[in-house]
């Protein structure tokens, strides 16, 4: 699903998307290192601020990631991170058009 973002905030959203891509790559590393507390913290922050940037879907995925970690479903958490990364890359491509 492509986000609807106004021209006025487009530069902010582009920067936000780029930073979240970095966060997702970092969370994958943290997940491999079993640093679940830091993954939870980052996921919670993304869940809270994604909607304010017009990226509600990202917020829903971050919530799912939190649930995966809380439930000890670490393979599923890795899959959720893959989905988040794909979504962010799709957004990045959409914004470059």
Biggest β-sheet strands, sense, barrel: none
The first-to-last residue Cα distance is 15 Å
Fraction of helical residues: over 70%
Shape: elongated
- Residue fraction in strands: under 5%
What is the assembly state of the chains in this entry? Answer: single chain
Structural class: mainly alpha
Write down the secondary-structure element order: HHHH
Uncertain regions: pLDDT < 50 for 5+ in a row?
Answer: none
Mean pLDDT: 92
Provide the gyration radius in Å. Answer: 13 Å
Q: DSSP helix count?
A: 4
Number of DSSP strand runs: 0
Keywords:
97 residues, elongated, mainly alpha, 0% strand, single chain, 4 helices
Please outline the helices and strands.
Elements: H1 10-32, H2 36-49, H3 56-70, H4 74-96
Summary of the model, kept short:
This protein is an all-alpha fold and 97 residues long. It has four helices and no strands.
Structure description:
- The protein is mostly helical.
- Helix content is 77%, strand content 0%.
- The protein has four helices and no strands.
- Helix 1 (10-32) packs antiparallel against helix 4 (74-96).
- The longest helix is centred in the N-terminal third of the chain and has 23 residues, at 10-32.
- The chain starts with 9 loop residues before the first helix and ends with a helix.
């Amino acid at each position: 699903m492509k986000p609807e973002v106004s021209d006025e905030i487009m530069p902010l959203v582009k920067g936000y998307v780029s930073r979240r891509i970095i966060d997702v790559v970092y969370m994958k590393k943290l997940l491999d290192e079993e640093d679940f507390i830091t993954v939870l913290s980052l996921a919670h922050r993304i869940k809270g601020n994604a909607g304010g940037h017009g990226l509600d879907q990202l917020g829903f995925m971050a919530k799912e990631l939190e649930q995966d970690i809380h439930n000890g479903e670490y393979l599923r958490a890795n899959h959720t991170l893959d989905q988040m990364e794909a979504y962010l890359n799709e957004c990045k491509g959409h914004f470059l058009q």
